[in-house]
Amino acid sequence: MRIDNLQYANWSEKIFRQMREGGVDAVHVTIAYHENFRETVLNFEAWNRWFELYPDLIMKGLWASDVDRAKAEGKTAIFFGFQNPSPIEDDIGLVEIVHTLGARFMQLTYNNQSLLATGCYEDDDTGITRMGRQVIKEMNRVGLVVDMSHSADRSTIEAADLSQRPIAITHANPADWHPARRNKSDDVIRAVTSNGGMLGFSVYPHHLKGGTDCTLQDFCEMIARTADKFGTEHLGIGTDLCQDQPDSIVEWMRVGRWSKEIDYGEGSAAAPGFPDMPGWFQDNRHFDTIETGLRQTGMNDAEVAGIMGDNWHRFYAENFTPKGG
Questions:
Q1: Which long-range contacts (CB under 8 A, 24 or more apart) does 209-213 make?
Q2: Is the pTM of this model over 0.85?
Q3: In the CATH scheme, what architecture does the domain 3-319 have?
């Protein structure tokens, strides 16, 4: 089983076919960065058209059982998530609505301070807000997973401790391997995994030691070291693949509506667009490369299978359903 727990590609039939060539059984797809509720609903509508156009390639994913069905039918199950809480605006009642529509992950922040928590680019991390505590409780109730990929350290640790269900960092790497501002300290990873949560390893070059030039061996050895520290069962893949996106999308991701100035975030003024992917992972056809690299670190079949998809599948099964459902 192969599950990629974060992509934001410029979707097309080509990419859907590459998913099938790569044997990818499920992908968690970002459908909101800065969109409000109505705009997010339009993104759900757009995906419904994709499902109608390519029923032999993709299907909507709501539950872990949909991954099994997709695998059996030779399709890729598409699960939806938000990289910002903007789709719920300031209305806690929308948490249940977006879950009903099909959302399964929601970040409490995207780099900046939100109504719920502090983003990783703020100077001061004040932790989970009053509204954030209530939203986490409601997310736990309905089965919407708390994602802290772009959140600051204190906020993430508090979220992991406050949440009554495991949370996730869907796409990031350990900061002690590569100290990007978006990568995570051992304290953060420990807080998430010790509470049953998951870390998805990213191949986005700004998250990689050496960037585009990062080697497969270095990446896979980093995963193996992280497994030794925190347990293989809490680890998966979340590539953060932004395939075929124009560079203008980076501006949308980083700036949204909050600034009139370009905020390059993890990039630089000299290279504001998308960086080149490493040669060993260009698109969905290359998951076998990561699998081979993990085996070469000495991991056994069960450990490799867990990281490539089984761990996310278990996490889906335990955390997408409403409490008592």
A1: 209/177, 209/178, 211/275, 212/275, 212/276, 212/277, 212/278, 213/278
A2: yes
A3: Alpha-Beta Barrel (3.20)
